[in-house]
């Protein structure tokens, strides 16, 4: 089942359940996916769907951080609910330990020895964890293991 099909089904379920927060989030996701489909000019592949969902998740996480820093704690719970809804459509997220294992294997495979090899390691790791791990987490793990 494609992402748009899932979103349409969940949109109907949220309407029937009168779940306004889920409904608005699913509508935003559906809009983002549809806009991306129009932009690329074809039905989205699963990688493109994950890219759209990851982008939407990142935007919400960044907003939570900005609102918290600005003292607008009243807006954070709504965004956290949106984050939960977006995460339903993404593959299971990897934990820090799993990311460390993947990074260690990649460091050995590419022969990285210092921080100068950071780009080489990131370039090899990111396709492996695409949609399953946050880029900031991967970045920090690679930096810590290369130092």
From TrEMBL:
Classification via InterPro entries: Asn/Gln_tRNA_amidoTrase-B-like, GatB_Yqey_C_2, YqeY/Aim41, YqeY/Aim41_N
GO molecular function per UniProt: carbon-nitrogen ligase activity, with glutamine as amido-N-donor
Protein name as catalogued: GatB Yqey domain-containing protein
Protein source organism: Liquorilactobacillus sucicola DSM 21376 = JCM 15457
